[in-house]
Specification:
Elements: H1 4-18, H2 57-70, H3 90-100, H4 120-138, E1 150-151, E2 154-155, H5 156-164
Antiparallel strand pairs: 1-2
Helix pairs in contact: 1-2
Pfam family, one: PIF1
Protein name: ATP-dependent DNA helicase
Family: Belongs to the helicase family.
Length: about 160
């Protein structure tokens, strides 16, 4: 398993080799792996929470690597086990599958399952992605409406600033 920082290093190397500033040098990348493997050494997992405080080059690189991972928009799930194939291994293959989760994540009911997170920024990002995906899926235009919060006729940011002074 590769980590967020290493994914950024791969992208930078390909961009340099291809003389193209696009992620991964503008070429298609196929990622194959097993998320149940051990985590990468000294690097955040691609699917882990990234610190909001990116006060070092390493933490910034991890954040950029995570953004690259979010840019992956096509997923292919390989269901056929090749390494332990054969009739004699059917029981073993079934055991390995159940050891992981015993949940069929390909079931369509999981596509709209609620996701519970601990931080508002993560919730907001997931909601934005889900709204965009729903708009694309239904062929509709997505509109965003932002509110201006006021209290006693003053916008809240102004009110907060006056209290800080």
């Amino acid at each position: 398993m590769i980590g967020c920082g290493f994914l950024l290093r791969i992208s930078k190397a390909l961009s340099k080799a291809k003389h193209n500033a696009l992620p991964f040098g503008g070429i298609n990348i196929i990622f194959a792996g097993d998320f149940a493997q051990l985590p990468p050494v000294s690097d955040p997992r691609l699917f882990s929470q990234i610190k909001t405080k990116a006060d070092s080059e390493r933490s910034q690189n991890s954040a950029f690597g995570k953004l690259l991972w979010f840019a992956v928009d096509t997923v292919v799930v390989l269901n056929e086990v090749m390494r332990q194939s054969g009739v004699s291994n059917l029981c073993f293959v079934g055991l390995l599958s159940r050891l992981r989760t015993d949940i069929d994540w390909t079931n369509p009911s999981w596509q709209t399952a609620p996701v519970i997170v601990a931080e508002n920024r993560v919730k907001d990002a997931l909601n934005a992605q889900a709204a965009d995906a729903f708009a694309r899926h239904t062929g509709r235009t997505l509109h965003w409406y932002h509110a201006l919060d006021t209290r006693n006729g003053r916008q809240v940011p102004e009110l907060l600033q006056s209290r800080l002074e």
